[in-house]
Amino acid sequence: MWLNIAFVGLKVLMIIVVAGIVVRVAKMLIRKTFSVRIKGPLKYNERRQQTMSKLLENVVTYAVYFMAIIAVLSAFTIDITGLIAGAGVLGLAVGFGAQNLVKDVITGFFIIFEDQFSVGDYVRIGQAEGTVEEIGLRTTKVKGFTGELFIFPNGNVTDVVNFSIHNSIAVVDVNISYESDIARVERLIQEFLVDLPEKYEQIIKPPELLGVQNITTTEIIMRITAETLPMQHFAVSRGIRRDLKEYLDQKGVEIPYPRMVMVQRSPEESNPSVIAKK
Amino acid sequence: MWLNIAFVGLKVLMIIVVAGIVVRVAKMLIRKTFSVRIKGPLKYNERRQQTMSKLLENVVTYAVYFMAIIAVLSAFTIDITGLIAGAGVLGLAVGFGAQNLVKDVITGFFIIFEDQFSVGDYVRIGQAEGTVEEIGLRTTKVKGFTGELFIFPNGNVTDVVNFSIHNSIAVVDVNISYESDIARVERLIQEFLVDLPEKYEQIIKPPELLGVQNITTTEIIMRITAETLPMQHFAVSRGIRRDLKEYLDQKGVEIPYPRMVMVQRSPEESNPSVIAKK
Amino acid sequence: MWLNIAFVGLKVLMIIVVAGIVVRVAKMLIRKTFSVRIKGPLKYNERRQQTMSKLLENVVTYAVYFMAIIAVLSAFTIDITGLIAGAGVLGLAVGFGAQNLVKDVITGFFIIFEDQFSVGDYVRIGQAEGTVEEIGLRTTKVKGFTGELFIFPNGNVTDVVNFSIHNSIAVVDVNISYESDIARVERLIQEFLVDLPEKYEQIIKPPELLGVQNITTTEIIMRITAETLPMQHFAVSRGIRRDLKEYLDQKGVEIPYPRMVMVQRSPEESNPSVIAKK
Amino acid sequence: MWLNIAFVGLKVLMIIVVAGIVVRVAKMLIRKTFSVRIKGPLKYNERRQQTMSKLLENVVTYAVYFMAIIAVLSAFTIDITGLIAGAGVLGLAVGFGAQNLVKDVITGFFIIFEDQFSVGDYVRIGQAEGTVEEIGLRTTKVKGFTGELFIFPNGNVTDVVNFSIHNSIAVVDVNISYESDIARVERLIQEFLVDLPEKYEQIIKPPELLGVQNITTTEIIMRITAETLPMQHFAVSRGIRRDLKEYLDQKGVEIPYPRMVMVQRSPEESNPSVIAKK
Amino acid sequence: MWLNIAFVGLKVLMIIVVAGIVVRVAKMLIRKTFSVRIKGPLKYNERRQQTMSKLLENVVTYAVYFMAIIAVLSAFTIDITGLIAGAGVLGLAVGFGAQNLVKDVITGFFIIFEDQFSVGDYVRIGQAEGTVEEIGLRTTKVKGFTGELFIFPNGNVTDVVNFSIHNSIAVVDVNISYESDIARVERLIQEFLVDLPEKYEQIIKPPELLGVQNITTTEIIMRITAETLPMQHFAVSRGIRRDLKEYLDQKGVEIPYPRMVMVQRSPEESNPSVIAKK
Amino acid sequence: MWLNIAFVGLKVLMIIVVAGIVVRVAKMLIRKTFSVRIKGPLKYNERRQQTMSKLLENVVTYAVYFMAIIAVLSAFTIDITGLIAGAGVLGLAVGFGAQNLVKDVITGFFIIFEDQFSVGDYVRIGQAEGTVEEIGLRTTKVKGFTGELFIFPNGNVTDVVNFSIHNSIAVVDVNISYESDIARVERLIQEFLVDLPEKYEQIIKPPELLGVQNITTTEIIMRITAETLPMQHFAVSRGIRRDLKEYLDQKGVEIPYPRMVMVQRSPEESNPSVIAKK
Amino acid sequence: MWLNIAFVGLKVLMIIVVAGIVVRVAKMLIRKTFSVRIKGPLKYNERRQQTMSKLLENVVTYAVYFMAIIAVLSAFTIDITGLIAGAGVLGLAVGFGAQNLVKDVITGFFIIFEDQFSVGDYVRIGQAEGTVEEIGLRTTKVKGFTGELFIFPNGNVTDVVNFSIHNSIAVVDVNISYESDIARVERLIQEFLVDLPEKYEQIIKPPELLGVQNITTTEIIMRITAETLPMQHFAVSRGIRRDLKEYLDQKGVEIPYPRMVMVQRSPEESNPSVIAKK
Fold first, then answer.
1. With an 8 Å Cβ cutoff, is G86 touching chain B?
2. Which member of C231, D31, E176, F170 lies 3.0 to 4.6 Å from F226 by CB, making a disulfide possible if both were Cys?
3. Mutation to test the E interface, candidates F149, F202, F219, F257, most E Cβ within 10 Å
4. Which residues of chain G lie closer than 8 angstroms to A172, CB-CB?
């Protein structure tokens, strides 16, 4: 029996070693092929090519290791069957387990087939927001803004928000005080906006002053929008904010602090018991 | 065996290339047909035609690639069957996976059949809000206000809010101070509203002053509503807000700042220990 | 084979055209019948009649198009069966898909049968609030206050809130200051309420002063309720609010601003380190 | 074939008319029976009798219309069977649909059998709060405080809160200032509470002063509780609040405004850069 | 046929009357037995006995009425079977309905068997909090603090919080100002706590001063805990709060009001446009 | 028949009595065994032993009573079978009921087998937080801080947070004012921390000053962490807070009150209508 | 029979003892092997090795105890079968129970196979955030920042956030007042940032000043980002905050307190009743 175990162990070791080598070689080949074929006749979307490369590596890895596991398991098979009498229960359980796996793979297939997002896109999926790093057969990896890596099974991907397909809109709100002359401020901002596209090359169309977005309890809010290249709206917003602040300062338009009207009363006046006694 | 693999690879490549060409040709034909047939005898709703064009492209793409995949898989079939003994488990899992797919397709069919929304409508579906860009067989794409693209399977579409079917109502709230003469303010606003429909052509009916919507701790809120063309209420609201603010300024009606009555006390009076000791 | 496809295409086209014509004719007939039969012997509830008219149109449309789809599919049948070997998987998936459809139809049937709401009622169902525009076999449409249209499958309708069946109650809260004489204010409000039913014809019963609803940190809140015709409580509340504000102003009852008692301290007194050092 | 359709139509019409008449007659009989039998020998709980009357009407309506529908459907049967080949799918779907129906009926049965609430009780079930108007076989109707009608299937009724079975407790919180003499205030409130049961007949037991419920940042909160007849606690609370406010005013106990201690500093002292430079 | 119906009606009536009588007699017997057997040899936990008495009544009621219903149904059986052809659908639906019923009964059984709570215990289960009034076979009834009765099926009982098994801990937080001498305040509170157990007999162990629980922006919070008899912590907390407030007042320890440091600036200094122009 | 019932009753009574006696004897034996075997050769983890003792009692109780119930039921069997024809429905329902029971037991088994927590550990599981009192076969009991007992089925235990396995970290945040010299404060706190481990023996490693955790609108927050014995961090935090407050007071480092810069304006200046008129 | 029980007990004891010894020996061997093999030819990722060591121990423990349990159960088998007649119900229930177990194991397998996280990584999974301590076959253990241990089944692991794979980004926001010269402040911060990488070796790239992130009601917020080694961003942020505060103090750039503009009014002016009377 000990011989048997040793033999099985050896077999398992060999399978693992071989599988490891095959995976490495395959990955290398895939990378080379893709770096060469960029200028081939089929002219794949460059954005999609990167996705495909990552995916192919992933698929090959799974396929090879899957076969390795089957091989390893088959080496043990006889013992396992001996242990568990009720194989039906195991079959049922494995069936349910595989269900999730299949769901992940099918959804992953549609993500790539429908080109919902590619490697390098900036997306928001559930709680994950960031740049897609890898779309695998079973899981997707997204790298967040502050460096964290989100890993989730494809079956969890339902609502995708993709920021990299269309141009982004930078939205900047400016507060001005009630006392400001709205017409004059609008004129000033309009003038200011004219020069922006020259200054920021990420701005596609001339920015627009939408108008009085809201009148809060202490401020009038003016909204400006500017269409930019995808995901450039953060940088553009920051720029507009700074430039506009300086511009309005020069023109003497005040950005208001919160304001409150105070009415002073003497304590006698506000003490109910005093009044009641009168 | 290597020959076999090479042969399969070649076959797969060919299938992919042919499928790609067919899809492109079909898409081109669909677009041409639709751009021609606008003035045909059947007189489809123009709004719906755009939806149909996008959908047909989508359906053709799926159909062609679906056949291609079947073809590709059939090239591999023998190997797969050899690997997995328990095909029942796989069948079950695929059945469950297909279930979601079918659900998406059926819901998608009803969205189009019941004309819940068309390409170009402004809708809110779950967390996605924006203009519908494409209604596919399996997924719908909605482009948000700031440029992001929402992609979700049709099976997730349950509650649809469509803003493009009926006229919109612009709602503007104006705050006036407690000290204002409500009757006079109402008269002033009524006069102001009379001229609005001339100024903004998006306004359908003469706007209405609903009255005193609420009395908060420091303000009286008057509500104005104006029926506009679909999705024009944002622009109209902004316009009314600005014009009304200027109008009320001219007439001397104050928009109040938050107000607080302060009662001054000396520290001795408010120190409990001091009082207790007396 | 190309001939076959062309033939099938022709057949499909013909089916669609015929179905379209049948639906239009049927809708026209339904509308005529209902506009005539209002004074028939059966005396249906007028409110319900409108619902029935909309529903019948909906049912006829579905029935005709359903037959058309069956006809179209049967033209394709042979090819589909040829493609998919495992028809069991498809059957299962379609069964699950149909399940939702049936659930929608059954719930829709009960909504109409139990008269939970009719076309024209003001309802709140889930997140949708507004006037019912159409109750279909599968979906219900509700038009919101600001013009948006909510569309949801009947299967999602569980908790219905219907505002159009019973009279509504207008609830108006008035804040008075701590220093006010509550008894006098109550007397004043009582007098004020006596004249209301004459002024607003939507008020059914004489309004009631419930009393001191709450004593917050700076105000005493008095609550008034008035029973009005269904959905007239918004308008009535606005009217009462304005009239009462003017009335209390005349009588010299103050609506209080938020109030705060300030205790002044010199910095030395409040610097812990200074004290500690002593 | 047209004859056939006409015949079926006639048959359906007749079934509907007969069913309508039967339902009306049955309802009338039920109402008469119940108005007579109040003094019968079985002495049903009067509260429950009203529930039963409503329920019986509901059951009869369902039963009659159910038979009518079966009759109507049987008139169509041959055509339907002809259309749909796969009756198994339909059977499955109807089975699932009926499941919800049965669940509603079973839960409804237990609501009445266990007397969880009766018509006229004030209850809170899920988001619905108000007076029960009707307990049907499938749905329950609750009328809310402001006139809206909540309609929900009995299957949604899980957690019931019934306010009409036991006496209610009115809870009144009074704020007094830190500077007040707690012992004296407690004595005063105790005296005040003694007279309450005479004044408000809905109060069952002498109200109780629980004591210092909480000490917040600016107030001491004293809590009073009074047991009242079911659902009379709102009215009683309002009364106690008003009376107690007047009483404390007379006795010179202050209800405190929010309070804040202000420490004045000169700008130089608080500018970090100035200090840092020193 | 009418004879048949009359006969069935009579039969049903008789069954109901007999069942009603049996239930009443059984309940009476149960109550007598339990009031007698308190001093029997088996010495059941007195707390559990009350639960058992209520439960037994409940079980007997169900059992008798269940048999009655079976009897009534069997009188109708022949007609029902005649109406519905597909009995399988009904069976399935009833099976699912019964599933919930069985789940409720099983969970109810474990609640009593594991003695999770008994009649009279103060518990929190889901949203219900109050004293347990009845544990039935299918539902549990809990009476809330303000008199409302919570009724929920036992199947909903998962997380139980029982307050009546162990002693409760009264937690009292005291705020003192930054300027206070913490060491002295701790000494004072320690002295104060020594006398408490004599004053409040519900306190089991000498209360403890935990120390400085938190330092908020304007206060230092000291925490005191006192172990009391079950559910006596509310009353004890109220007492400690009042006594401690008086004690600290006597000793001159200030309970601080919220505090804010104000820095005054002239408008010129804070107007950015003015500065920018310089 | 009455004889039969009496006989069954007697049998049931006997079974209950015998089962009660067996359970008591078994519990006694278990306690004795465990109090003896602490010094046995197997050297179980002492923490685990207590868990095992409680569990064994629980298992024995269940096993005995389970057999008793089977015995009691078998006495009734014949009657029950007679009543219910469709035993299949009952079987299905019991199967589903047992499913939950089995899930609870399996999860309970893994809790103990994987040693996720033991009796006496301080844990947070779902909404329950406190000391584990008993881990049973089906339910777990946790005693909360204020004396309440949480009882929940093991199947609800998914995410366990165990505070008793590793050392705890006490986290203390100190606010200092903008005007403070950060470098000096850091030096002072460092000196202060050096003496702490001697003062509090629960501190394992010398505490650490992490640095400037945050700069809020009015304060600089410095964070200190100290590793303590498990669950000693509450006590240690309280101690550090008090000592540090006194230390900083001595050294003249101010803990700042909230601060606000006030800019005074005259009413004329801030009234928009006045300005607009100019 | 007693003999039989004794014999079974002995057998069970022996099985447990043997299993315990085997597990200990196996664990020892695994540890030794791994500490030796670090420099073997296969060159596993060092990070993964630690995970493997822990996992192998876990797997061996399970495997051994699983066999032991099977052995123990088989000793009891005959009795159990005798007790429960309906073994089908048990089988079903065990099947469902095992389903969860299998799901946990499969997910656990993919976590390790896809290298989602390893022992020592800092991750956030659901509500658990901390350092991974152990990845077992069924459960994962994560040690939180303050010392608590999170234990959850692998089946609950869906969305993983791994902070240890990529570099982290430290984000520091600085508030400056409206009155500041933005251009100058930007210049100052830029100069400040140049020296940072030398000071903090965890900073990988020169930090960046993103610009004006936001303009709130009283402050301008400037954002700085710095790429650091994984999980070093907390320490780096703290350092930057302190250094920058000192630097800006030196340069005379003010960090603003919240600001409010106060408008003083006399009570007469703000009392509506007074005005109304005029």
1. no
2. F170
3. F149
4. none
- Closest chain D residue by Cα to residue B274: D179
Domains of chain C and any CATH numbers: 2-97 (1.10.287.1260), 113-162 (2.30.30.60), 168-250 (3.30.70.100)
Inter-CA distances, B127 with A81, D177, E21, F8, F55, Å: 50, 48, 59, 63, 48
In this prediction, residue C42 has a pLDDT band, given cuts at 50, 70 and 90, of very low
- For residue D269, what is the enclosing H or E element? helix D267-270
Q: For residues C28-48, b (16+ Cβ closer than 10 Å) or e, as one string? A: eebeeebeeeeeeeeeeeeee
Residue F194 identity: V
End-to-end C-alpha distance for chain B, whole angstroms: 106
Separation between Cα atoms, residue G145 and residue G166, nearest integer Å: 20
* Residues F236, G147: Cα–Cα separation, whole Å: 14
Tell me the two tokens of residue A146. Answer: 């502050």
G254:D276 CB<8 A: no
Q: What residues 178-217 of chain G have any CB closer than 8 A to a CB of chain F?
A: none
User: What average pLDDT score do residues G244-266 get?
Assistant: 84
CA distance E193 to E183: 15
Tokens encoding B249: 């300024």
3-state helix, strand, coil in chain B (%, to 5): 55, 20, 25
Q: How far apart are CA A240 and CA C101, in angstroms?
A: 52
Angstrom distance (rounded) from CA B168 to CA B151: 26
Q: Supply the pTM of this predicted model.
A: 0.81
Q: Can you tell me the distance from the alpha carbon of G13 to that of F70, in angstroms, rounded to the nearest whole number?
A: 29
Pairing of strands F122-125, E220-228: unpaired
d(CA C46, CA F112): 68
Residues 6+ apart with CB under 8 A from A273: D248, D249, D251, D252, D253, D254
What number is the ipTM of this complex? 0.77
Which chain F residues touch C271 with a CB distance below 8 Å?
254
Q: How close, in Å, is residue G111 to chain F by CA atoms?
A: 18
Provide CB contacts within 8 A for C98, sequence distance 6+: D89, D90, D92, D93
E94–chain D Cβ distance below 8 A for any pair: yes
Q: Are strands E259-265 and D259-265 parallel, antiparallel or unpaired?
A: parallel
Choose from D89, D92, D176, D179 for mutation: most chain B CBs within 10 A.
D179
A257 phi and psi angles, rounded to 5 deg: -80, 160
CA distance F186 to chain C (A): 17
Q: Categorize the per-residue pLDDT at B275 as very low, low, confident or very high, splitting at 50, 70 and 90.
A: very low
Contact residues, chain F, for E266 at CB < 8 Å: 263-264
> What is the pairing mode between strands A259-265 and G259-265?
parallel
| G254 contacts D271? CB cut-off 8 A | yes
Look at G260 and F264 and tell me if their CB atoms are within 8 Å.
no
Residue A2's pLDDT band, with cuts at 50, 70 and 90, is: low
Question: What tens digit of pLDDT does each residue of E160-196 get?
Answer: 999 999 999 999 999 888 888 889 999 999 999 998 8
Token pair in block for residue D260: 């804040």
- For residue C171, give both structure tokens: 């609830």
Nearest residue to D140 via CA among D115, D104, D96: D104
Q: Strand ranges (DSSP E) for F83-241?
A: 122-125, 128-135, 139-144, 149-153, 160-162, 168-176, 208-215, 220-228
DSSP, res D239: H
Adjacent-strand bridge partners of E222? E174, E212
E267 and F264 in contact (C-beta within 8 Å)?
A: yes
pLDDT tops 70 at residue C44: no
Q: Does F257 touch chain D (CB under 8 A)?
A: yes
Q: How far apart are CA E216 and CA E256, in angstroms?
A: 12
- Spatial separation of the C-alpha atoms in residues G259 and G261, rounded to whole Å: 7
